[in-house]
Amino acid sequence: MLIDFLKQLIFKQQKMTDRNSIKIEFAVQISGAGCAAEVQHALEGSGQVEIDVAKGSVLVETATPWIEIQRKIEATGRRAVLSGFGGQSAVSIVDHGNESSNVRGVVRFCAISADKPGTVVDGVIDNLAKNRPYKLDVHECGDISAGCDSVGDVYDSTEISSDENGRATVRFVSERLAVWDLIGRSVVVTEADTKRRLSCGIIARSAGIFENYKKICACDGVTIWDERDNPLAGGNRGEHKSAL
After folding, report:
1. Residue 12 domain flag
2. Where does the record place the HMA domain (predicted)?
3. Both 62 and 39 in a single domain?
4. Residue 30's pLDDT is what?
5. Residues whose CB is less than 8 angstroms from the CB of residue 33 and which lie 6 or more positions away in sequence, other chains included
6. Contact 60, 24 (CB under 8 A)
7. Same structural domain, 59 and 110
8. What is the pTM of this model?
9. Domain shared by 99 and 180, yes or no
10. Cα separation, 126 vs 91, whole angstroms
11. pLDDT band, very low/low/confident/very high, at 147 (cuts 50, 70, 90)
């Protein structure tokens, strides 16, 4: 009986670990085997790592927030851009209705299973007050025509907190959420005490791993390495070049 119990306990622990780990893919500026070895070394202890030098792809199966994996890769002096996230995935760019707060960030959702509820939520929110409690709410609607006031009622809510730099790094597994049911809804960052809505964004489908090999935007010639240093739109997007 004891042996059976221990076997079941180990199985459950392994299952929880597997469910908490997801595959994330980065496009990385890799020029050869030496570069790949440096990136591999930087990611030691972060999970299972596969590097394709020819494609400039780094695939990591990990339970670590994607922003931390990106930081480790870029500590080697190479720019890294998240290009794929799990299998069935969605993303919310949280930057609407924030004229007074300037709170903004990115929240990603990845299905644990193709046919059952359960989602890994992974993201980062910046420009918050330091060391304060907040809520990351999923609202029932994706209507942001009136900013964060037209997104309907709260569909799901999770407590988060900011660090000493005003950043909230988010990573948890929700058994309640399903990616297919989230698309078209919205994410709202809310002050925990006042319930003031600080910023919001629509949840949309995003690329999974091996689904995005874009290196240059066809509309203006901006590379993925320069993209995050440029405004999202406008005629001067192609003028800025990366310093890294």
Report:
1. no
2. 26-78
3. yes
4. 86
5. 53
6. yes
7. no
8. 0.64
9. yes
10. 16
11. very high
